[in-house]
Design brief:
By secondary structure, this protein is mainly alpha-helical. It has one domain. The longest helix is centred in the middle third of the chain and has 12 residues. It has 3 helices and no strands.
């Protein structure tokens, strides 16, 4: 799930450091259970 979230974050926040996005994706992956939730979490 982390990989999906990370891809969505990279698409939304172009130019932001990969290490920062990786930490955000790791935190979101703890609560996100499916791809629909991942999209909602990234939008939020």
């Amino acid at each position: 799930m982390k990989k999906i979230i990370l891809e969505k974050l990279k698409a939304k926040f172009e130019g932001v450091s990969d290490s920062i996005l990786d930490r955000i994706a790791e935190k979101l992956a703890k609560t996100v259970k499916n791809e629909a939730d991942a999209t909602t979490a990234v939008e939020g």
